[in-house]
Each structure stands twice: as C-alpha cells, then as structure tokens.
Amino acid sequence: MEGSVFCGHCGYKLPEDLLNDDDNHKSEESVIDDNQEMEKNSIEDEDQVDLDSAALNDKVELDEDQKEDNDQEIIEENDLSEAIDDNVQNEDENSNKKFEFDDTNDSVEEENKEETISEENTNNHSSPESSKQTKKALLIALCFVLAVGVFTGGFYFLNKKSDTTKTKSSSLTSTVKTKSDDKIHITLSAVEPAYTVNENNADIDYTKTKFHWRTDSDGTKSQEIINNIKNEYFKYSKSTGLKNGEEVTVTINIDEDDYTVTGQKSFVVNYDTSKYEARVNGQTVDERIRDADGYVFENSDSEYLTASQLSSIKTPTQLRIAINEIYARHGYSFIKNPSIQRYFDAKNWYYKDEYLYEDSQMVWNTYEDANLKTLAKLRKGKLKYNPSSELSV
After folding, report:
1. Residue 249: its pLDDT value, please?
2. What residues form the membrane-spanning segments (predicted)?
3. For a designed S-S bond to 30, which of 26, 133, 143, 171 qualifies (C-beta 3.0 to 4.6 A apart)?
C-alpha cells in the first residue's frame, strides 16, 4: 500500500498510472476532470449501494419470514418426533414385557429340564442293591412267563390229543366233507320221540325217534350232512325211566369248517301202553314168537310175571302161546291140538315127551302154578279165545 494515492473526497484508491513519471505530463485540468468523473462514479456507486442495501433489507425480511416458517415446521416436526418416540417407547415396553414372559417360560422350561436331568441322574446313580433287585424281579417274571407257556402248550397238546379220540366230530367229518367256502347252517326244528315201554316206565327208542331240520341250503350237501347225523350226536336231558308228563330236552351242536348243526327242542313224554310193546332182549312178543329160540316169557318158570310183562300181551294168540309154553318146557305132547304141536316142534328148546299128554300128569313149581293162574285170568274180553281152535301164528 506504500506509495498509493487515495481520493480526498470518496477515499477510493487512485490508479497507479497517475503516479507514474510518464504521466506527469498530464495537466492539472486533466486531473480535475478525472476527479469529477470519479465523484460521479462515486455518486452512482452510492446509489447502487443504497439500492443494494434496500434489496438486502428486503432479503433479510424474507429470510426472517422463511425462518419463522422453518421454525414452525421444526416445531411440528419435533411434536411428530415426540409422538413417534412415545409410540416407540410403548412398543419397547410391550416388547420388554413379552421378553420378560418369554424369559419366564424359558426359566420354567429350564427348571423342568433340570428336574428331568436330576431324576435321570438319580435313576442312573441308583444303588447296586436296587439294580440287583430289578434283575431279580425280571428273572422271576421271565420264569413265570415260561411256566405259563409250558402249561398252556401242554394243555393245548392234551386237548388236541383228546379231540382225536372223539368219534363224533371225526366220524361226521370223514363221512361228509363239503368244499364250499360258506358254511351251511342246519337247525333242529322238531322232534318226534319214540319209546320202548317197560314195566312202569319207558325209554327213548333212538332208532325210531324222528328229527326234522331247517337249513339255509337246499342242495344235496345239506341232505347228505343230515343223513349222516348219528343218534350219539344228540344229548338228552333224560332218556330212560321216563314217566308220562315228564319234559325232555334234546340238544345238538356240531361246528365244522364248512357247516354247523345246532338246535335245542323240548317235548313232553306221552306214551300209550297199548301202542308200544315191551321188549325182551330187544324183541317184541311177536318177534320172540317167530324166533326159533324165543319165548313169550322166558322167565315164566322161575319168576312171577310182572304187570309190565302181562300188559305186553295184546292178542289171544300171544296169550295162548304164553300159557302153553309153560307146558312145553316139560315136554308136554299136544296131541289134542296139532296146530299148537307144530308151533312147538319148530322151537329149538322143545323136546317132546310122548307119554306126557294129560293135565293130571303135570307137576308145577310155585312160579309156574302162580303164572298159569294169572294168565288164565286174562282169558276174557278181547283176549278170550277157544282152546280147541287152530293156532294161527
């Protein structure tokens, strides 16, 4: 700044070329003109400065307004930020509560795990004595299971062996064997009993008793099964010594792979003494009469005849032979009635005595005498006959 010249009016620095020696030749007027020019420029500069100052004031006012607006926006933003912060803080509190609940659950789970681990450790660290007792208990249980198995196997074997000895099921199975996958069901529907009449009661006559059946199959297989059902397959609640009015139940139960025979029926005993004949050695009176070795009453010379035996006499011919066979045992000759003689000549047990042909010659024992008198009393009513008539057998 040394050597610089400034204007005395406005204070502006004068150009250096005015100070150079080469320009010293300029006249004082030129200097005055320059000063005036500079003053003019200075005035213009001041006006410009005033304009700039006014513009600057306007700008400042605008800046202040803008600043107020910005301050208002900042206040609003701060309020919004505070609201957001409050919301975030609430969420944080809820989250903390959730974390605290989760922590509680985790704590409970940890405690349960610790208890489980503690129990496992307790079990794993049980005393040797407890382990021995456990092994002993297991050994006893194993022995018990083996014993049960052996007993069950033996029982099954014995039952199976026993089953093979049964002729009921095996006989029916061997006789009738159906190949259908579906079982045939046969059911007992009715029973027609037959009886053998004895002295004071009757027995079931198995050979004459009839059974009626109902089946779900009408084929020949069903009929074949029925035809092979034997009397021994039936079970009777009572079959001998029956009295009129008694109830008897018949049951059958056969279960095979391809068929079943089942049923249970009851009937009331009702036999007619006039319809059924007493049997001796399985024979009726007529059958014994036709038998070469038969007697009407085989014991009439050694026992008193019973009411049951007497009730078996149904015809005059039967009564006539019963009386005369007591004579025939002694070899009596029936010369007065050839038809009776022919009858006894056919008997294997008869031996004719030609010298014995009068009633006065006969000697009877106590049983023979009593039985002759008893039989003679029957010669009345429907059993009455003529001693001189021909004997028709």
Report:
1. 95
2. 137-158
3. 26
Tell me the residue range of the domain where 98 lies: 16-103
- Confirm if 204 and 278 have CB atoms less than 8 A apart: no
Rounded-to-10 torsion of CA 75, 78, 84, 86: -100
In a domain, 183, yes or no: yes
Say if residues 259 and 186 touch (Cβ distance below 8 Å).
yes
Asked whether residue 114 is assigned to any structural domain, the reply reads no
Q: Give the number of C-alpha atoms closer than 13 A to the C-alpha of residue 139, restricted to the C-beta side.
A: 6
pLDDT along the chain (393 residues), means of 10: 58 57 45 53 52 51 57 57 55 48 49 53 53 80 79 68 52 45 86 83 89 86 89 92 91 92 93 65 84 92 91 91 95 93 94 92 94 92 86 79
Whether residue 156 is found in the same domain as residue 196: no
Tokens of 188: 């007992």
Domains contained in the chain, number = 4
Query: Given 111, 144, 165, which residue is the final one in a domain?
Result: 165
4 falls within a domain: no
Q: What is the CATH number of the domain that holds 330?
A: 1.20.58
Give the model confidence (pLDDT) of 71-83 as tens digits.
Answer: 565 555 555 556 5
Q: What share of the chain is helix, strand, coil (3-state, %, to 5)?
A: 55, 10, 35
**The predicted structure's pLDDT at residue 21:** 46
SS3 282: coil
Q: Tell me, yes or no, whether 69 and 44 share the same domain.
A: yes
Question: Which one of 268, 300, 326 terminates a domain?
Answer: 268
Pairing of strands 184-192, 259-268: parallel
Buried b (16+ CB within 10 A) or exposed e, 310-342: bebbbebbbbbbbbbbbbbeeebbbeebeebbe
